[in-house]
Design brief:
The chain has 4 helices and 5 strands. By secondary structure, the protein is of the alpha+beta class. The chain is elongated. The model has no long low-confidence stretch (mean pLDDT 94).
């Protein structure tokens, strides 16, 4: 987990799957730190009037869990995100167990960039998130000669 993987160790098609149950505690920490007090996330009475009928976990928090799977399990910590696109394709409710699948879609060695994609599904198999993003890896430090 959270290895310092070099760019050269990555391959197109590398993939990882990881499940996470989205809890009220996860959301409380996220909401408190971001100020995202949207009523659909925190207010039962309001959320019951929406098309979802209950409170939703913040979508961008779920997206953050996806990027965490990427860095902790697949590419390591050296890359820096330079572009992220997320599609919220279904609701995530508190208590849902989400399976994240993240894979390397393309590598650009000359730019030292990794293009990755992801899909997340709830326990019923409904896709709730799709992602496409790019990481840039630093160039290796040149060794000094005496």
């Amino acid at each position: 987990m959270y290895d310092d993987k070099p760019f050269e160790a990555l391959n197109v098609g590398d993939r990882v799957r990881l499940s996470k149950t989205v809890t009220e505690a996860d959301a409380a920490l996220y909401i408190a730190s971001t100020g995202d007090f949207g009523p659909v996330h925190v207010n039962d009475a309001y959320a019951s009037t929406t098309r979802f009928g209950q409170r939703l976990a913040p979508g961008i928090m779920v997206a953050g869990l996806c990027t965490s799977v990427l860095t902790s399990e697949l590419v390591g910590v050296a890359g820096v995100s330079i572009e992220d696109q997320f599609w919220f394709t279904g609701p995530v409710f508190y208590g849902d167990t989400i399976q994240f699948e993240v894979w390397i879609d393309a590598l650009e060695p000359e730019k030292r960039t990794v293009h990755w994609k992801a899909s997340a599904r709830n326990e019923d198999g409904l896709e709730v998130l799709k992602a496409r993003a790019t990481l840039k890896f630093p160039r290796p430090k040149k060794k000094e000669t005496p």
